[in-house]
Amino acid sequence: MLEFLKQPWPWYIAGPLIGLTVPALLIMGNKSFGISSSLRHICAACIPAKIPFFQYDWKKEVWNLFFVAGILIGGFIAAQLLSNPANVVVNPKLATELAGYGITDYHSLIPAQLFNWPQLLSAKGLILMVGGGFMVGFGTRYAGGCTSGHAIMGLSTLQWPSLIATICFMIGGFVMANLILPFILNL
Amino acid sequence: MTQQENTDFEVRSLDAIYVNESELQHKWYHNVKYLLTGILFGIVFVKSEVISWFRIQEMFRLQSFHMYGVIGSAVATGMLSVWLIKKFNIKTVYGEKIVFSPKKFNKGQIIGGLIFGFGWAITGACPGPMFAQIGAGATVVIVTLLSAIAGTWVYGKFREKLPH
Lengths: 187, 164
Fold this sequence. Notes:
The structure holds two protein chains of two kinds.
Chain A: H1 2-6, H2 11-29, H3 37-46, H4 62-81, H5 92-99, H6 123-143, H7 147-156, H8 160-185
Chain B: H1 3-13, H2 32-47, H3 53-60, H4 66-87, H5 108-123, H6 127-135, H7 141-158
């Protein structure tokens, strides 16, 4: 059983489990599934700086912070107890492309050659980690949600603005991954 | 009540998916159930490799069905669940009615959506996976997360000046 759990889980197991988070949170306490809001609650709690957007009682949304703390702990448990020693298997076309940028290490889900502390001192590392993170935080709040809030919760409740947002996430991702990221990875 | 307390719900609802105000007040430990849900969710994230930068790159190059399968089946499960909740008028564990509020369209969903898409493809992570990546041992992602918090803060700061 444990050996089975250590294998990478297929999409038809993971997807429905992620989808079940929607009714679980609703039934537990009328909470709508969304993760990027946690970033806003952290701003409201730690650095509100008299900005109207952060002037609300973040303690009423504290469930969201418990939820993301759980995700962090879950990541720790999965990595410690259920980790798969084999390398990450990727499409050979991707492996060929990434080898061209010198990315050859597949032992971790997050490429250790790109995402590491010393890399923060390089232009490439700054763009990938600091620049990328900034766009995630700014973009999700501007859009009013991320993959969980718009793509999963929004589409589950048949909201067309969420469909537009999801399409824009994908367009942005396709443009970045195919047209811009190659230049960044070549730095 | 002061002016500030009166607008709390409105401010919280801005650019949020939607906010449900419960009439009930609970002790803090009622939040432990969300912590446990998060833990299960985090484990699924790691084990299905949704937090993998490589999987996100495959998705945006149409080189793998995996992420489309995950997101598609998650949406299908969510839709069916929401339909069942509405159909059978399922209540929360506290006996409250489960409510949904419609989301209004604004330009932010397009502009912000594109910006988030750029960031998603670069970092290989949306906000949820960032937390799981840190837990899984990629400590440098703390920097990415802090930068995302900074991005959210800058958005809040300039919100009034941005097109909506």
